[in-house]
Design brief:
By secondary structure, the chain is α/β, with parallel strands linked by helices. The chain is 37% helix and 14% strand. The chain is built from eleven helices and nine strands. Strands 7-6-5-8-9 form a five-stranded parallel β-sheet. A four-stranded parallel β-sheet has the order 2-1-3-4, sandwiched between helices. The longest helix is centred in the C-terminal third of the chain and has 20 residues. The radius of gyration is 19 Å and the shape is globular. The chain starts with 18 loop residues before the first helix and ends in an 8-residue tail after the last helix. The structure holds N-carbamoyl-L-aspartate. The site of N-carbamoyl-L-aspartate has 10 residues, from helix 2 and helix 6. N-carbamoyl-L-aspartate binds next to helix 2 and helix 6.
Amino acid sequence: MKQEHAARRNLLSIYDLSPDEMLAIIDSADRFEELSRRSIKKAPALRGKTVINLFLEPSTRTRTSFEIAGKRLSADVINVSDTSSSTKKGESLKDTVLTLDVMQADVIVVRHGSSGSAQFVSRYVNASVINAGDGMHEHPTQALLDCATIKRNCATIAGLKVAIIGDIAHSRVARSNIGALTRLGAEVHVAGPLTLMPADVASLGVRHHLRVEHALEGADVVMVLRLQKERQESGLIPNLREYARHFGVNRNRIALAKPSAIVMHPGPMNRGVEIEPEVADGDQSVIKQQVEMGVAVRMALLYWIMNASDPLTN
Ligand code: NCD
């Protein structure tokens, strides 16, 4: 059984962080971004620490940015994936993480297809655990990087109208962003087909609209979600063309938001389905900036996780 570490920090859910802690991590990302823009992108903050990225579901952005973040802070970073690990031979998640833990990992970053898996892992290991996406449940680091991107572009988060469009029911990105944005004072509006709305949507503290146009009107931020085809039962939407016609974010629909509105998408995108290429690549899009902020925010988070006694003051 694992020992209890009083000072160990985890990030399993966005609700693990208070609004002040979220803002401290977001604001400290600036100095890590500055480091990433130097010609020698390296600081010794995590020298001698071991970060294991255990990714048992596909990932490009999240896995790469955690790897880059750890390496820029001088940690030893090891990547374990589904195809390259003994999970492929049937080893359980519990046995896999117990094995990684006795190798003295300091941080285990875990992505897994089951909701609750990060919480499960944290019960068995001494390492700090970061949830990099657990099924349909949460993706707290995506919410942090999205809030950092919003704050960068809009100066503040409190009082903004944020429209989240698409497959809310299957989206861990939506759940974590709703938890972050509502507690940071944004007014969150969601729209998408009823079959892709969680049954308890009203209890999440958001306004639900049946028509995408109503969510978009006057929005400061438009967050488009990927249709999570791999998590859906069949028959939830008639077909992709119908979905794009009624809910796809295109140039005409974006015109309903404020002229200064920013357009976000966590990636990977289904171009021509939930978002038209002209919007994804248009002037209002901050999709690439989200990726860049992802590295800086994950550096800030790893630093915060490993320096439990440091309140992140400069
Ligand atoms: C998201 C994820 O994996 O939850 N992607 C990401 O981390 N950038 C969103 C998605 O897959 O739709």
